[in-house]
Design goal:
Blueprint (H helix, E strand, L loop, with lengths): L1 H32 L4 H6 L9 H10 L4 H32 L5 H12 L7 H11 L6 H4 L6 H14 L2 H9 L4 H12 L1 H17 L2 H6 L8 H5 L11 H33 L4
Helix pairs in contact: 1-14, 3-14, 4-8, 4-11, 5-8, 8-11, 8-14, 9-10, 11-14
Length: 277
Protein backbone atom coordinates (compact mmCIF):
# COMPACT_ATOMS: atom_id res chain seq x y z
CA UNK A 1 0.00 0.00 0.00
CA UNK A 2 2.80 2.41 0.89
CA UNK A 3 4.57 1.78 -2.40
CA UNK A 4 1.32 2.33 -4.30
CA UNK A 5 0.64 5.65 -2.53
CA UNK A 6 4.23 6.72 -3.15
CA UNK A 7 3.91 5.86 -6.86
CA UNK A 8 0.69 7.88 -7.17
CA UNK A 9 2.34 10.84 -5.48
CA UNK A 10 5.33 10.63 -7.83
CA UNK A 11 3.02 10.52 -10.86
CA UNK A 12 1.09 13.55 -9.60
CA UNK A 13 4.28 15.54 -9.08
CA UNK A 14 5.63 14.46 -12.46
CA UNK A 15 2.44 15.50 -14.28
CA UNK A 16 2.37 18.81 -12.39
CA UNK A 17 5.98 19.56 -13.35
CA UNK A 18 5.28 18.74 -17.01
CA UNK A 19 2.23 21.01 -17.05
CA UNK A 20 4.22 23.77 -15.38
CA UNK A 21 6.98 23.52 -17.98
CA UNK A 22 4.45 23.55 -20.84
CA UNK A 23 2.83 26.65 -19.35
CA UNK A 24 6.09 28.54 -18.85
CA UNK A 25 7.82 27.69 -22.15
CA UNK A 26 5.78 30.11 -24.35
CA UNK A 27 6.52 33.02 -22.01
CA UNK A 28 10.20 32.09 -21.84
CA UNK A 29 10.47 31.89 -25.64
CA UNK A 30 8.80 35.29 -25.91
CA UNK A 31 11.23 36.80 -23.39
CA UNK A 32 14.25 35.19 -25.11
CA UNK A 33 13.21 36.38 -28.58
CA UNK A 34 12.80 39.89 -27.22
CA UNK A 35 16.57 39.85 -26.57
CA UNK A 36 17.55 38.40 -29.98
CA UNK A 37 18.13 40.05 -33.34
CA UNK A 38 16.04 39.38 -36.42
CA UNK A 39 18.85 37.29 -37.97
CA UNK A 40 19.10 35.11 -34.85
CA UNK A 41 15.33 34.56 -34.77
CA UNK A 42 15.30 33.60 -38.45
CA UNK A 43 18.14 31.14 -37.91
CA UNK A 44 16.04 29.02 -35.60
CA UNK A 45 14.78 28.27 -32.12
CA UNK A 46 16.80 29.10 -28.99
CA UNK A 47 16.22 29.01 -25.24
CA UNK A 48 19.26 31.18 -24.42
CA UNK A 49 18.85 34.99 -24.19
CA UNK A 50 20.97 37.23 -26.39
CA UNK A 51 22.17 40.85 -26.04
CA UNK A 52 20.05 42.79 -28.55
CA UNK A 53 17.34 44.02 -26.18
CA UNK A 54 18.57 47.63 -26.17
CA UNK A 55 18.74 47.60 -29.99
CA UNK A 56 15.23 46.15 -30.20
CA UNK A 57 13.97 48.83 -27.80
CA UNK A 58 15.51 51.59 -29.94
CA UNK A 59 13.86 50.16 -33.06
CA UNK A 60 10.59 49.79 -31.18
CA UNK A 61 10.50 53.39 -29.97
CA UNK A 62 11.68 54.54 -33.41
CA UNK A 63 8.52 53.05 -34.88
CA UNK A 64 6.38 55.24 -32.63
CA UNK A 65 5.61 52.57 -30.04
CA UNK A 66 4.66 54.83 -27.13
CA UNK A 67 4.70 52.21 -24.39
CA UNK A 68 4.19 54.59 -21.47
CA UNK A 69 1.37 56.48 -23.17
CA UNK A 70 -0.34 53.23 -24.17
CA UNK A 71 0.24 51.82 -20.69
CA UNK A 72 -1.44 54.84 -19.08
CA UNK A 73 -4.40 54.62 -21.46
CA UNK A 74 -4.85 50.87 -20.91
CA UNK A 75 -4.48 51.26 -17.15
CA UNK A 76 -7.12 54.00 -16.98
CA UNK A 77 -9.63 52.11 -19.14
CA UNK A 78 -9.10 48.73 -17.48
CA UNK A 79 -9.19 50.10 -13.93
CA UNK A 80 -12.31 52.21 -14.54
CA UNK A 81 -14.10 49.38 -16.34
CA UNK A 82 -13.21 46.89 -13.60
CA UNK A 83 -14.47 49.15 -10.80
CA UNK A 84 -17.75 49.78 -12.63
CA UNK A 85 -18.24 46.07 -13.34
CA UNK A 86 -17.50 44.97 -9.77
CA UNK A 87 -19.67 47.55 -8.02
CA UNK A 88 -22.82 47.24 -10.11
CA UNK A 89 -22.53 43.48 -10.60
CA UNK A 90 -22.12 43.03 -6.85
CA UNK A 91 -25.17 45.19 -6.24
CA UNK A 92 -27.25 43.21 -8.76
CA UNK A 93 -26.15 39.85 -7.37
CA UNK A 94 -26.82 41.07 -3.83
CA UNK A 95 -30.38 42.05 -4.79
CA UNK A 96 -31.01 38.67 -6.45
CA UNK A 97 -29.94 36.84 -3.29
CA UNK A 98 -31.17 39.02 -0.44
CA UNK A 99 -34.51 40.35 -1.72
CA UNK A 100 -37.64 38.39 -2.56
CA UNK A 101 -39.71 39.79 -5.43
CA UNK A 102 -41.77 38.56 -8.36
CA UNK A 103 -39.82 37.73 -11.47
CA UNK A 104 -36.50 37.17 -9.70
CA UNK A 105 -36.00 33.75 -11.27
CA UNK A 106 -37.01 35.10 -14.68
CA UNK A 107 -34.43 37.90 -14.41
CA UNK A 108 -31.70 35.43 -13.46
CA UNK A 109 -32.71 33.14 -16.34
CA UNK A 110 -32.38 36.07 -18.76
CA UNK A 111 -28.93 36.87 -17.35
CA UNK A 112 -27.88 33.23 -17.77
CA UNK A 113 -29.24 33.20 -21.34
CA UNK A 114 -27.29 36.35 -22.27
CA UNK A 115 -24.11 34.53 -21.25
CA UNK A 116 -24.62 32.13 -24.17
CA UNK A 117 -24.94 34.92 -26.77
CA UNK A 118 -21.59 35.71 -28.49
CA UNK A 119 -20.50 39.29 -27.85
CA UNK A 120 -19.50 39.67 -31.52
CA UNK A 121 -23.16 39.64 -32.55
CA UNK A 122 -23.75 43.02 -30.93
CA UNK A 123 -20.66 44.82 -32.23
CA UNK A 124 -22.29 46.41 -35.28
CA UNK A 125 -25.33 47.59 -33.34
CA UNK A 126 -23.14 48.87 -30.52
CA UNK A 127 -20.96 50.82 -32.94
CA UNK A 128 -23.98 52.42 -34.66
CA UNK A 129 -25.44 53.38 -31.29
CA UNK A 130 -22.18 55.00 -30.16
CA UNK A 131 -21.83 56.74 -33.53
CA UNK A 132 -25.35 58.20 -33.31
CA UNK A 133 -24.69 59.29 -29.72
CA UNK A 134 -21.43 61.00 -30.73
CA UNK A 135 -19.35 58.91 -28.32
CA UNK A 136 -16.81 57.51 -30.77
CA UNK A 137 -13.13 58.32 -30.24
CA UNK A 138 -13.65 58.47 -26.47
CA UNK A 139 -13.22 56.10 -23.55
CA UNK A 140 -16.88 56.27 -22.48
CA UNK A 141 -18.02 53.33 -24.69
CA UNK A 142 -15.15 51.26 -23.27
CA UNK A 143 -16.17 51.86 -19.64
CA UNK A 144 -19.95 52.32 -19.40
CA UNK A 145 -20.86 48.81 -20.71
CA UNK A 146 -19.44 47.58 -17.41
CA UNK A 147 -22.77 48.61 -15.86
CA UNK A 148 -24.17 45.34 -17.20
CA UNK A 149 -21.86 42.33 -16.92
CA UNK A 150 -23.87 39.07 -16.96
CA UNK A 151 -20.86 36.83 -16.30
CA UNK A 152 -19.85 38.74 -13.17
CA UNK A 153 -23.45 38.89 -11.90
CA UNK A 154 -23.80 35.14 -12.41
CA UNK A 155 -20.56 34.36 -10.59
CA UNK A 156 -21.26 36.74 -7.70
CA UNK A 157 -24.77 35.35 -7.21
CA UNK A 158 -23.37 31.82 -6.94
CA UNK A 159 -20.70 33.10 -4.59
CA UNK A 160 -23.25 34.79 -2.32
CA UNK A 161 -25.50 31.72 -2.26
CA UNK A 162 -22.60 29.63 -1.02
CA UNK A 163 -21.05 31.98 1.53
CA UNK A 164 -23.27 34.93 2.42
CA UNK A 165 -25.36 34.72 5.66
CA UNK A 166 -28.66 36.52 4.94
CA UNK A 167 -29.36 36.62 8.69
CA UNK A 168 -26.77 39.40 9.00
CA UNK A 169 -28.91 41.57 6.74
CA UNK A 170 -31.98 40.88 8.83
CA UNK A 171 -30.10 41.74 12.03
CA UNK A 172 -28.84 45.01 10.50
CA UNK A 173 -32.39 45.95 9.50
CA UNK A 174 -33.56 45.40 13.05
CA UNK A 175 -30.78 47.74 14.22
CA UNK A 176 -32.14 50.41 11.87
CA UNK A 177 -29.49 50.37 9.16
CA UNK A 178 -30.54 51.50 5.68
CA UNK A 179 -30.41 49.12 2.72
CA UNK A 180 -27.51 50.94 1.05
CA UNK A 181 -25.61 51.03 4.32
CA UNK A 182 -26.11 47.28 4.76
CA UNK A 183 -24.84 46.65 1.25
CA UNK A 184 -21.74 48.81 1.66
CA UNK A 185 -20.83 47.87 5.24
CA UNK A 186 -21.83 44.19 5.29
CA UNK A 187 -22.36 42.95 1.75
CA UNK A 188 -19.28 44.31 -0.01
CA UNK A 189 -16.76 43.35 2.70
CA UNK A 190 -18.02 39.76 2.70
CA UNK A 191 -17.77 39.63 -1.10
CA UNK A 192 -14.07 40.57 -1.20
CA UNK A 193 -12.69 37.14 -2.29
CA UNK A 194 -15.26 36.83 -5.08
CA UNK A 195 -14.79 40.44 -6.14
CA UNK A 196 -11.02 40.00 -6.21
CA UNK A 197 -11.37 36.94 -8.43
CA UNK A 198 -13.72 38.57 -10.92
CA UNK A 199 -11.72 41.79 -10.71
CA UNK A 200 -8.61 40.03 -12.01
CA UNK A 201 -10.48 38.34 -14.88
CA UNK A 202 -12.28 41.57 -15.77
CA UNK A 203 -9.10 43.64 -15.68
CA UNK A 204 -7.22 41.17 -17.87
CA UNK A 205 -10.11 40.95 -20.33
CA UNK A 206 -10.35 44.73 -20.60
CA UNK A 207 -6.56 45.07 -20.92
CA UNK A 208 -6.43 42.56 -23.79
CA UNK A 209 -9.48 43.97 -25.55
CA UNK A 210 -8.54 44.96 -29.10
CA UNK A 211 -11.62 44.78 -31.33
CA UNK A 212 -13.83 47.34 -29.57
CA UNK A 213 -11.11 50.01 -29.05
CA UNK A 214 -9.90 49.47 -32.61
CA UNK A 215 -13.46 50.03 -33.81
CA UNK A 216 -14.11 53.16 -31.74
CA UNK A 217 -10.77 54.94 -31.14
CA UNK A 218 -9.23 56.88 -34.04
CA UNK A 219 -6.82 59.30 -32.28
CA UNK A 220 -3.38 57.73 -31.89
CA UNK A 221 -2.72 59.44 -28.54
CA UNK A 222 -5.69 57.50 -27.12
CA UNK A 223 -4.48 54.08 -28.35
CA UNK A 224 -4.23 51.26 -25.83
CA UNK A 225 -1.25 48.90 -25.66
CA UNK A 226 -2.88 46.12 -27.75
CA UNK A 227 -3.70 48.73 -30.41
CA UNK A 228 -0.09 49.91 -30.47
CA UNK A 229 1.17 46.34 -30.78
CA UNK A 230 -0.97 45.71 -33.86
CA UNK A 231 0.73 48.72 -35.45
CA UNK A 232 4.08 46.91 -35.34
CA UNK A 233 3.80 45.81 -38.93
CA UNK A 234 6.57 45.02 -41.33
CA UNK A 235 8.50 47.71 -43.11
CA UNK A 236 8.76 47.58 -46.88
CA UNK A 237 12.36 46.31 -46.78
CA UNK A 238 12.77 44.58 -43.43
CA UNK A 239 10.81 43.09 -40.56
CA UNK A 240 12.36 43.57 -37.11
CA UNK A 241 11.05 40.49 -35.34
CA UNK A 242 13.06 41.19 -32.20
CA UNK A 243 11.37 44.55 -31.64
CA UNK A 244 7.95 42.99 -32.28
CA UNK A 245 8.61 40.30 -29.67
CA UNK A 246 9.79 42.98 -27.24
CA UNK A 247 6.61 45.01 -27.81
CA UNK A 248 4.41 41.98 -27.13
CA UNK A 249 6.45 41.11 -24.01
CA UNK A 250 6.09 44.66 -22.65
CA UNK A 251 2.34 44.46 -23.23
CA UNK A 252 1.75 41.25 -21.29
CA UNK A 253 4.23 41.98 -18.47
CA UNK A 254 1.67 43.92 -16.35
CA UNK A 255 -0.78 41.01 -16.64
CA UNK A 256 1.83 38.53 -15.46
CA UNK A 257 2.51 40.72 -12.42
CA UNK A 258 -1.23 40.98 -11.67
CA UNK A 259 -1.63 37.20 -11.81
CA UNK A 260 1.44 36.64 -9.64
CA UNK A 261 0.19 39.08 -7.01
CA UNK A 262 -3.45 37.96 -6.83
CA UNK A 263 -3.46 34.29 -7.84
CA UNK A 264 -4.45 33.22 -4.31
CA UNK A 265 -7.70 35.18 -4.64
CA UNK A 266 -8.52 33.37 -7.89
CA UNK A 267 -8.21 29.96 -6.21
CA UNK A 268 -10.21 30.94 -3.11
CA UNK A 269 -12.90 32.81 -5.04
CA UNK A 270 -13.47 30.10 -7.66
CA UNK A 271 -13.63 27.42 -4.96
CA UNK A 272 -16.45 29.25 -3.18
CA UNK A 273 -18.21 30.80 -6.17
CA UNK A 274 -18.39 27.54 -8.09
CA UNK A 275 -20.68 25.85 -5.56
CA UNK A 276 -24.03 25.01 -7.08
CA UNK A 277 -27.41 25.55 -5.47
Amino acid sequence: MKNRKFSKKVIKYFVSIILFILSVIPFWILAVNATRSTEQIQQGFSMIPSHFMSFNYEVLTGRGFGFYRGFANSLFISTSFTLVVLYFSAMTAYALVVYEFKGKKVIFSIIAFVLMVPAQLSLIGFYKMMLNAGLTDSYIPLILPGLASPATVFFMRQYLLSSFPVTLVQAARIDGASELSIFHKIGLPLMKPGLATMGIFTFVGSWNNLIVPLMLISTEDKYTLPMLVQLLKADIYRTEYGSIYLGVAMTILPLVLVYAAFSKFIIAGVALGGVKE
